[in-house]
């Protein structure tokens, strides 16, 4: 790359895009990388402030920003992300399908620390829809050392820094507990909320059992749904510390492995997560807040369960920072700080 006067650049090849910015009208390239400069282009280049122009010269140890941008993009994306056209050393990634967006924060930080390149992304562990923007990558200078891009590849390792996990199809069983519902004293207003949230995913509800506060009855209902082929069990009610709230005991008595009873999230502190059997079938105990609060711990955990993640206690523990829903008058979840 060499710098020369614009008036003397006729016949030379541009080594980068030339952007024109007219406030309120346009911000786009008037000339693209590789354009051969003509006599009539000179006034246009001068009008966008280019008294001097960078001309491309091949160098065996250097990469043009667009070539390097492709390398940076490749170390970021997995199979379910669509890259934009490279433009001025920048490539953006968008989702090709609905799913759970994952970020390896340590490797992302390590690549960004190399300098002369950047990767910016939305938070990880969030649900995204097809077409959503996920990340952007850019090379800062017009040319960059090949060796530096090799270091970026080594730093990132063999796996992509980002992963988009498509949602799985699941068969769900719902267990509603509580004497007040079982004996018809009040209407079950919890189950409709659960069905509505499940409708956002590819879920078939194959059974709904209504139980009293008898923990043996609840255990039997869970096992019945498991035997029917459910690969997701949701239990509503009976999750507080009151002596007659027996759902956690009932879940434990199925033989399921309890991951956590309690989560650092508000609303949702009394949440329970367990896994049943070798197939790691999720069994969740949902606190009453899921019925009346717009967003709760259930909204943070369900996308990860639907993407096939097997969560451990430390995954729930990390939710403490960002685990306070601010109950905004207009809810923008997941485009907010809740759970991040």
Automatic annotation (TrEMBL):
What Pfam families does its record include? MoCF_biosynth (PF00994)
- Which UniProt key words apply to this protein? Magnesium, Metal-binding, Molybdenum, Molybdenum cofactor biosynthesis, Transferase
* Single GO MF descriptor: molybdopterin molybdotransferase activity
- Domain MoaB/Mog intervals: 173-307
Q: Name one GO cellular component term.
A: cytosol
GO-annotated biological processes: Mo-molybdopterin cofactor biosynthetic process
Q: Which SUPFAM superfamilies match?
A: Molybdenum cofactor biosynthesis proteins (SSF53218)
Cofactor names: Mg(2+)
Pathway(s): Cofactor biosynthesis; molybdopterin biosynthesis
- Which catalysed reactions does the entry list for this protein? adenylyl-molybdopterin + molybdate = Mo-molybdopterin + AMP + H(+)
Which E.C. number(s) belong to this protein?
A: 2.10.1.1
Top-level enzyme category: transferase
The UniProt family comment states: Belongs to the MoeA family.
Q: What does this protein do?
A: Catalyzes the insertion of molybdate into adenylated molybdopterin with the concomitant release of AMP.
Spell out the PANTHER family in the cross-references: MOLYBDOPTERIN BIOSYNTHESIS PROTEIN (PTHR10192), MOLYBDOPTERIN MOLYBDENUMTRANSFERASE (PTHR10192:SF28)
Protein name per Swiss-Prot or TrEMBL: Molybdopterin molybdenumtransferase
Organism per entry: Schaedlerella arabinosiphila
């Amino acid at each position: 790359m060499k710098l020369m006067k614009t008036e003397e650049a006729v016949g030379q090849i541009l080594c980068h895009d030339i952007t024109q910015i007219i406030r309120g009208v346009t911000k786009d390239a008037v000339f693209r990388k590789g354009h051969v400069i003509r006599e009539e282009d000179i006034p246009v280049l001068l009008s966008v402030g280019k008294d001097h122009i960078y001309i491309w010269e091949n160098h065996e140890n250097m990469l043009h920003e667009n070539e390097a941008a492709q390398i940076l993009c490749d170390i970021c994306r997995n199979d379910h992300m669509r890259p934009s056209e490279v433009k001025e050393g920048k490539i953006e990634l968008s989702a090709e399908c609905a799913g759970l967006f994952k970020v390896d924060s340590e490797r992302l930080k390590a690549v960004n620390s190399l300098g002369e390149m950047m990767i910016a992304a939305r938070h990880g562990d969030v649900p995204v829809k097809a077409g959503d923007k996920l990340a952007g990558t850019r090379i800062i200078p017009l040319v960059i050392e090949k060796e530096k891009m090799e270091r970026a590849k080594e730093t990132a390792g063999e796996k992509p820094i980002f992963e988009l996990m498509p949602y799985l199809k699941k068969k769900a069983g719902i267990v509603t507990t509580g004497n007040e519902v079982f004996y018809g004293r009040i209407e079950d207003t919890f189950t409709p909320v659960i069905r509505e949230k499940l409708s956002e995913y590819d879920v078939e509800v194959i059974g709904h059992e209504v139980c009293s506060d008898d923990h043996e009855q609840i255990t039997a209902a869970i096992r019945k749904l498991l035997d029917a082929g459910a690969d997701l069990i949701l239990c509503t009610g009976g999750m507080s510390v009151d002596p007659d709230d027996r759902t956690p005991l009932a879940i434990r008595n199925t033989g399921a492995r309890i991951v956590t009873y309690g989560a650092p999230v508000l609303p949702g502190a009394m949440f329970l997560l367990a896994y049943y059997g070798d197939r790691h079938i999720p069994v969740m105990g949902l606190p009453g807040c899921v019925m009346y609060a717009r967003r709760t711990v259930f909204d943070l955990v369900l996308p990860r369960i639907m993407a096939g993640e097997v969560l451990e206690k430390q995954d729930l523990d990390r939710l403490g920072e960002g685990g306070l829903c601010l109950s905004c008058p207009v809810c923008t979840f997941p485009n907010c700080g809740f759970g991040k």
